Amino acid sequence: MREQYQEQLDGLAAGLADMCDQTAVALDTATRALLDCDLPLAEEVISDDVKVDELRADVEEKAFELLALQAPVATDLRIVVSAIHVATDIERMGDLALHVAQAARRRHPDPVLPEEVQPYFAEMGRVGVMLARKAGEVIRTRNLVAAEELESDDDAMDDLHRHMFTVMMDRHWPHGVAAAVDVTLLARFYERYADHAVAVARRIVYVVTGQMPGPLAV
Amino acid sequence: MREQYQEQLDGLAAGLADMCDQTAVALDTATRALLDCDLPLAEEVISDDVKVDELRADVEEKAFELLALQAPVATDLRIVVSAIHVATDIERMGDLALHVAQAARRRHPDPVLPEEVQPYFAEMGRVGVMLARKAGEVIRTRNLVAAEELESDDDAMDDLHRHMFTVMMDRHWPHGVAAAVDVTLLARFYERYADHAVAVARRIVYVVTGQMPGPLAV
């Protein structure tokens, strides 16, 4: 009985880590679709999003069952409640990767992004994917050092995000308003994706230490 | 004992409804700050955001205690788990109102919005505030008719949001890229605020019926 209970708790973490891997793949693929104007890749992300949603439903159902049947307390209860929060964050990461893919599809066969900003988005994609993978690792290993690293990794994303605004605000931005609107929204999607990955890591810190790290910038 | 338990469950709903009211006030005030370039109003929203965060922490603590001490099952468990979700959504609504206020503060004493789009933002503010208030009412009364109304009310927000893009994409948009970037982000904040209010209502439908309504557009 006790053993099965422990397996159920571990199963929650495994499901959440799988969700992270799935959303890392989604952002990686969406970024390639965006940069290469690759419609089949965009479609792949769009149709695969349901998998993240299913994983999330599965995690939530397991968490609900655990609460109903095992009535966990103390640390175990923290694990289950945190799993519910974390599942929400990761599902949102999947949605944001989906939004990137939808932008690529919407403008196809035209590129969404002016060539000038493409390297920044390649980098935002790389940082985002790395954050998602690291969040998955933190869920699996409860490595608090890695959890803390996510916060500084996220600073790189914030810098890239801010830099996009500097580039667009330059009075010589030659790409017009439509491109600026797309860049604004896409940069926001990447930045929010990273914020959610950081939120995941912070929840794991809370599970392990019983304390939430300091306030999150929003 | 049973009576106290019921009071605790009711207390969760009361806390969440208060959060809705608080975020309705925040968006109303932030919208006025935005449209009237009113710095003190913007500062008010910014300093008041902590109240929403505190209400949320309070709801979460109560939910955690209920789970630990009462081990609720069935509908009661659904109520508690949903409270955790709903608190997250409403806190995010507060953050989005905060972002609106921060935009007003950042550009002060200049207006953030070109005069031409101000009426649309006044309307987005009105719809957003109405949605938050209605979400609070749904939490208090579990009125499923009102809950369903939120979905169609949200269509009005989506229309306004889409219309902003049409206005900016017009090749005669005379306000430049910087204004377009601001309009893009602000319109997104209002739209996301409304999405979260709808998500709150949907959770209450789930609490009452045991079924989530159909998939939410993201």
UniProtKB/TrEMBL annotation, chains A, B:
In terms of InterPro entries, this protein maps to: PhoU, PhoU-like_sf, PhoU_dom
| Keywords of the record | Cytoplasm, Phosphate transport, Transport
Primary location recorded for the protein, binned into one broad class: cytoplasm
Gene3D superfamilies cross-referenced by the UniProt entry: Phosphate transport system protein phou homolog 2, domain 2
Q: Domain PhoU: where?
A: 17-103, 122-204
Cite a single Pfam family from the UniProt record.
Answer: PhoU
Places the protein is found = Cytoplasm
Organism domain of life: Bacteria
The text of the family note is: Belongs to the PhoU family.
Per UniProt, subunit arrangement is: Homodimer.
Q: What does this protein do?
A: Plays a role in the regulation of phosphate uptake.
* PANTHER family associated with the record: PHOSPHATE-SPECIFIC TRANSPORT SYSTEM ACCESSORY PROTEIN PHOU (PTHR42930)
Task: Quote the protein name from its UniProt record.
Answer: Phosphate-specific transport system accessory protein PhoU
What organism does this protein naturally occur in? Pseudonocardia hispaniensis
